[in-house]
């Protein structure tokens, strides 16, 4: 009897535990569907895709979220913007000043920014696949937000003027960036001298960058690369990340604003400078 009770307890913890992968929404759990682009979500609830969508728009946003407490579940379908070309200024999904936005299970490709949220907070971006976005795949700024379990592939190459960086993930204002794969970030294609970032945080004190994988960074125009850069980020924790490069001059694997930030348990390989300005504990750095 005791073993049976314990077994049910373990099953309950598995089903209800916080780390359980989010399920895709079924059609009867969706408040509404997005069937064409551009689209605007103006009421809270769960909104879904039920087919691949694409658009050649070169500005604005394919999906604009104008309400709080919105979940967008793409159910594995695509939001495509490749037809707009590398000079696009369009975002795929955007929100400004909103709270509790969740974006999951989306395949996003070909936009200036894939998932873009400014101000507001408490956002969750999880289990999305983002490729061929030209400036940044995920750009989230809002306290209490989490970016986790995403696949970010082949970011960069924007030919739009003025941009002097590219970043697989760009985030700030108290965000946790957890268990993402960022691979293949190239600099802008607009002729500027630019820095290429795998993960870039700004004003992210009290946030964390944990258990991510960053690799294959390519600078542009004589610029350099930063695997994980944390600027003006105060008491940030950078922990258990794998960061790899192929020996670009002046490249830095993990960089902090000051030793108020802590780097612990990271594996950094192939950068001219492995870890810079962080308080260090138990990292492995191989410059070869």
From TrEMBL:
<dbReference type="InterPro" id="IPR006626">
    <property type="entry name" value="PbH1"/>
</dbReference>
<dbReference type="InterPro" id="IPR011050">
    <property type="entry name" value="Pectin_lyase_fold/virulence"/>
</dbReference>
<keyword id="KW-0732">Signal</keyword>
<feature type="signal peptide">
    <location>
        <begin position="1"/>
        <end position="24"/>
    </location>
</feature>
<dbReference type="InterPro" id="IPR012334">
    <property type="entry name" value="Pectin_lyas_fold"/>
</dbReference>
<protein>
    <recommendedName>
        <fullName>Right-handed parallel beta-helix repeat-containing protein</fullName>
    </recommendedName>
</protein>
């Amino acid at each position: 009897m005791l073993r049976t009770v314990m077994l049910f307890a373990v099953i309950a913890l598995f089903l209800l535990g916080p780390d359980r992968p989010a399920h895709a929404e079924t059609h009867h759990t969706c408040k509404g569907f997005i069937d064409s682009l551009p689209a605007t979500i103006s009421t809270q609830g769960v909104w879904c895709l039920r087919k691949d969508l694409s658009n050649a728009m070169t500005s604005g946003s394919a999906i604009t979220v104008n309400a709080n407490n919105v979940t967008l579940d793409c159910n594995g379908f695509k939001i495509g913007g490749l037809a707009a070309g590398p000079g696009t200024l369009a975002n795929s999904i955007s929100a400004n000043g909103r709270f509790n936005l969740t974006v999951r299970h989306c395949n996003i490709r070909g936009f200036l920014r894939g998932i873009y949220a400014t101000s507001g907070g408490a956002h969750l971006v999880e289990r999305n696949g983002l490729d061929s976005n030209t400036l940044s795949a995920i750009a989230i700024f809002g306290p209490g937000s989490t970016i986790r379990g995403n696949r970010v592939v082949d970011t960069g190459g924007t030919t739009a003027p003025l941009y002097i960086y590219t970043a697989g993930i760009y985030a700030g204002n108290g965000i946790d960036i957890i268990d993402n794969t960022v691979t293949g970030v190239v600099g802008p294609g607009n002729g500027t001298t630019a820095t290429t970032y795998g993960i870039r945080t700004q004003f992210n004190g009290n946030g964390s960058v944990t258990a991510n994988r960053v690799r294959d960074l390519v600078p542009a125009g004589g610029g350099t690369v930063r695997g994980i850069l944390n600027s003006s980020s105060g008491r940030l924790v950078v922990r258990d990340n794998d960061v790899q490069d192929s020996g670009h001059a002046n490249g830095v694997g993990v960089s902090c604003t000051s030793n108020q930030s802590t780097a612990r348990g990271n594996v950094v390989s192939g950068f001219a400078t492995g870890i810079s300005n962080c308080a260090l504990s138990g990292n492995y750095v191989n410059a070869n």
